[in-house]
Fold:
Amino acid sequence: MDDNLRREIILENYKEPYNRGLIDDENYSKINSRSDSCIDNLDFEMMINNDIISDIRFDGEACAISTSAASILIKELVGKKVDDALQILNNYKNMINEKSYDKELLGELIVYDEIYKQPNRKNCALLPSNAIDKLIGRLKK
Structure:
């Protein structure tokens, strides 16, 4: 991917993130995800209906990587069946951790395919995916 396009997508999702803002609704499952090493502190909430992720929202304070990753992940996962969402999350985490992955499943998430070059940023990129993965785990029970 062209570096300019990569930066543009990340900055766009940082400045105007998708589904930012929480809803005070008891039908949503909620989780906080906080980094031990930086300012990143995001709250996520999710609703699943009939095995489909109907909504994911987030809010909080975080760097450009965490905020944009949350925004792009949400765009990629809302409307997907839970198993498909888990497959996307698994491939995304594999990409970030330099393991084998299917780039065709990732959509815009592919902008983070070179994040491994900045090891200190890997946690920023993984913070939202780990939180969403935990929420799915809670809701699947």
Summary: Strands lie at 29-34, 41-49, 52-61. The first strand starts at residue 29 and ends at 34. The chain has a mean pLDDT of 95. Helices lie at 3-15, 64-77, 82-96, 122-140.
